[in-house]
Amino acid sequence: MSNKFSISRRTFLITSAGVLGAAVVGTGAMNYLSTVDVRARIVIIGAGAAGVCMAARLMRKIEHPDITVIDPAERQYYQPGFTFIASGIFQPDEVWKPQQACMPKGVKWVKEAVVALDPERQKVSTSGGKTIEYDFLVLTPGLQLNWDKIEGVTSGSLEEVARVGNAHSIYHFEGAQRIWPAIQTLVEKGGRGIYTDTYTKHKCGGAPKKICMLTEHLARKKGTRDNLQLDYFCSEKALYDVPHYTPRLLQIYEERGINLTVRHKVKSIDIGKREVCFQPYVVGEDGSSTDLPDLVCERYDLLSFVPPQSAPDFVRQSGLSWQEGKLAKDAWVEVDKETLIHRRYPNIVSFGDVAGIPTSKTSSAVRKQLPVAQDNLLAIMQGKEPTAKYNGYACCPIVTDYDHVLLAEFDYNKQPDISFPFSLLDMSREQWTAMMLKRHFLKPMFFYGMIPGLM
Ligand SMILES: Cc1cc2nc3c(=O)[nH]c(=O)nc-3n(C[C@H](O)[C@H](O)[C@H](O)COP(=O)(O)OP(=O)(O)OC[C@H]3O[C@@H](n4cnc5c(N)ncnc54)[C@H](O)[C@@H]3O)c2cc1C
Description:
Layout: H1 9-33, E1 42-45, H2 49-61, E2 67-70, E3 75-77, H3 82-86, E4 96-98, H4 99-102, E5 108-110, E6 114-118, E7 123-126, E8 131-133, E9 136-139, E10 144-145, H5 158-165, E11 167-168, H6 173-189, E12 191-196, H7 207-222, E13 228-233, H8 246-255, E14 259-261, E15 264-270, E16 275-283, E17 289-291, E18 296-299, E19 302-304, E20 309-310, H9 313-318, E21 348-350, H10 363-381, E22 394-401, E23 404-410, H11 432-450
Parallel strand pairs: 1-2, 1-9, 2-5, 9-21, 11-19, 12-13, 12-19, 13-14
Antiparallel strand pairs: 3-4, 6-7, 7-8, 10-20, 15-16, 16-17, 16-18, 22-23
Helix pairs in contact: 1-11, 2-10, 6-7
The structure holds flavin-adenine dinucleotide (FAD).
């Protein structure tokens, strides 16, 4: 299939820079144009992609803001860059800034972790023993990586798991750095690379698949592909479930000789033996899954794995999570999927990774959730109906090799929701223009557009 429209590298870069600039200036100007005079105590829990950007937006919009941000982190990471550290495209220092530099002027920053949240009494307890009361709450603490749900791994043993077991996870900054030399060694010496994901909802479902395809391409570039066996073990029923993009992704795995096994959940890693064991399962006609009696254990030379993920423990204990349904088990927050307002506590807005909504957990989704969360928070603060609606937009830039990205943009219905200028192209296939966006524009968009609250 050919491109709907052919576009030169120069035209793409100029058009994209123009669109990006217009978006930043336009949205920023809209933000400045109207302010509201509402007086209330706002507490924001978690100052990652969702929380710190919301703080910046609210500081612009509210005339006399009273905003407390609670987050112990000293650094603001651009986490989508972890995959590029793991593949040698970015240097580690390119993907973070000191949190102090990202925190909007005028907010009160409490550098502590929230340990308890009482939505009835509208108060929060912190690791330093503080009690902080709120009138309105923005709940954006991201998600919790549950390393110890994999037998043989704990959060304290990750360095040993990497050193002894050559098992790595790009889901943390150190892991992304450690896997890059390990990938280079595999490509140079040959052997078996096993790549896996996890059975819970997780950030950027594309990330584990990307690092597998990047390893394969690196081996081709170095002329050593024949010395490598690459296997991808997928926890889900299928490699990807957005119909517009799945066929091409499956085709790429097949074309590149990456063996794909689905319905296998990582259960344990034996770092001494360099062996990973999976729990296989079958899915019945009614959609229910049943574990098969025997584990499947595989030896590897390099393992890329993903920790199971859930809402942070204090969220689970607060009673704000879904009480039933698929999102209850991992304690995702019970928000209305369109307004992003809590379904039982109308003075709480929650979005980003912690939110219990049926879309991908990505910062591109956060970018589209932000104006909705902001407008609806301001509406409820003024006693008005929250009318802004989020359509579930998420974007997963699936890096298929060092030059191309399959840019999956979709909504709650898993229908393509493609942004300009990509709507001019056939986005069911990987495009180099999308790699330009991923490599050159998205990080500056995050640090200089989203974080200052300009987009
Ligand atoms: C390997 C990888 C690749 C990714 N690739 C992409 C991609 O290509 N495209 C994309 O759009 N997205 C990608 N993402 C996902 C994206 O980074 C997240 O979806 C996004 O950061 C979510 O924002 P958030 O604010 O909800 O959570 P975070 O950005 O994780 O922020 C959560 C904040 O809450 C704080 N916090 C946690 N617990 C507490 C507590 N108890 N008290 C106070 N504060 C607390 C943390 O310190 C942190 O600052 C990727 C992520 C990873 C890990």
